[in-house]
Design brief:
4 domains, six-stranded mixed sheet, Molybdopterin biosynthesis moea protein, domain 2, 398 residues, 7 helices, alpha/beta, Molybdenum Cofactor Biosythetic Enzyme, Chain A
Length: 398
């Protein structure tokens, strides 16, 4: 078995030498889920003018007194008509442009308004002013190349005046599930079959991470059919993901099929639980992963390996994040030759509680978990209160 870190390093070594996906320009509104191919520069100062942080009264910076003449009221979206002078104020709404020479804003809660005048009850030390360009100036890098565009990133780019961006093409994946024991629907399920959980799960994960599924199929346990599905998938997609058929059983044909199609196997057993029978293979211009058939193992290895390879294709450098926690309950296991990822819940005080887990087919445990407790190889016991490593589900993707 290959240690997990060594397996990840092998993925990095292969993928680092592969060209990134082509670049295309897209409208900002269609960029969520894409990866920036280049730095995006601000086209506006942010904010684009001096503005008020609060509803209040704009005054000169050093003009602190008890009463002011009220010159005008400026709503958000309107410009002041005249600059300030000593002894005068302008009422401004939140986000409104400040009049020329304004240095601070007296919030409405600290003042009362009369007929054409304002009485101040308290001068707050806070200015409540946002200066033009204090966040970004025109030409500053708004977001660097390699950024995965989220709705929040989209909002940021929109505020910078960006309307189109250059991103990598969406990666494409072909998904193949294998096995006579797998049924694709309830109506066709035989008495000795289980329903296909991996196909729908991996398709949904691909969609969630901005990957286009160009082919999805199921093949029974036959070498020729497995080989044909692999050949077609490799011709149509940037990356192939097969589930099932990767162990050493009499009806496991994925590894020999990959070999017959000319792919080099970099590893076929990883010292991680769940997920030992994971295969990474490549050809001159092809990439393939064969993941275990048990769905929890497929879920974990898709995140650990497949998304790592996708990150390289989309010009992102993979990273791994984890939390340092303490155990709310002791953890024991009999064998420790593999690093084990145990479904667990996370509490507000950063304590972690392992969930009863029946093995790599126990989807229900992961479905109610917050992430995984990571138990290093060689460790059989973690005591109550012991320090531990926890990876939230949201942090699984590199």
């Amino acid at each position: 078995m290959v240690p997990l870190e060594d397996a990840l390093a092998q993925v990095d070594a292969v993928m680092a030498s592969r060209p990134a996906l082509p670049v295309e320009a897209v409208p900002l509104g269609k960029c969520v889920g894409r990866v920036l191919a280049e730095d995006v520069l601000a086209r506006l100062d942010v904010p684009p003018f001096d503005q008020s942080k609060m509803d209040g009264y704009a005054i000169l910076a050093d003009d602190r007194r008890g009463n002011y003449d009220l010159l005008e009221v400026v709503a958000a979206g309107r410009m002041p008509s005249a600059p300030l002078r000593p002894g005068a104020c302008v009422k401004v709404m939140t986000g409104a442009p400040l009049p020329e020479r304004a240095g601070r804003v007296i919030v409405v809660e600290n003042a009362s308004e009369g007929s054409g005048s304002v009485t101040v009850h308290q001068h707050d030390p806070e200015t409540y002013v946002r200066r033009r360009g204090e966040d970004l100036r025109v030409g500053d890098v708004a977001l660097p190349a390699g950024t995965h565009v989220t709705p929040l990133a989209l909002a940021h780019l929109a505020s910078c005046g960006v309307e189109r961006i250059r991103v990598t093409r969406r990666p494409t994946v072909a998904l193949v599930s294998t096995g006579d024991e797998v049924a694709t629907c309830m109506a066709g399920r035989g008495p000795a079959q289980v329903l296909d959980a991996n196909g729908p799960m991996l398709a949904a994960l691909a969609h969630q991470h901005g990957i286009q599924v160009v082919m999805r199929s199921h093949v029974p346990d036959a070498l020729s059919l497995t080989r044909d599905a692999i050949r077609e998938s490799l011709a149509r997609a940037d990356l192939l993901v097969v589930t099932g058929g990767v162990s050493a059983g009499d009806f496991d044909y994925v590894l020999p099929a990959l070999t017959e199609e000319g792919l080099e196997t970099h590893f076929s057993r990883v010292a991680v639980k769940p997920g030992k029978p994971t295969v990474f293979a490549s050809g001159e211009d092809t990439i393939a992963f064969a993941l275990p058939g048990n769905p929890v193992a497929a879920f974990l290895t898709f995140h650990l390996f497949v998304l790592r390879a996708i990150a390289w294709l989309t010009r992102r450098r993979p990273t791994r994040r984890a939390l340092s926690v303490t155990l709310r309950e002791a953890f024991r296991r009999r064998r420790a030759e593999r690093e084990e990822w145990v479904p667990a819940r996370l509490s507000d005080d950063l304590t972690c509680t392992p969930i009863e887990f029946h093995g790599s087919g126990h989807l229900a445990a992961v479905a109610v978990s917050d992430g995984f407790l990571v138990v290093p190889a060689g460790i059989t016991e973690l005591d109550l209160g012991a320090p531990a490593t926890f990876v939230p589900l949201a942090w699984l993707a590199p």
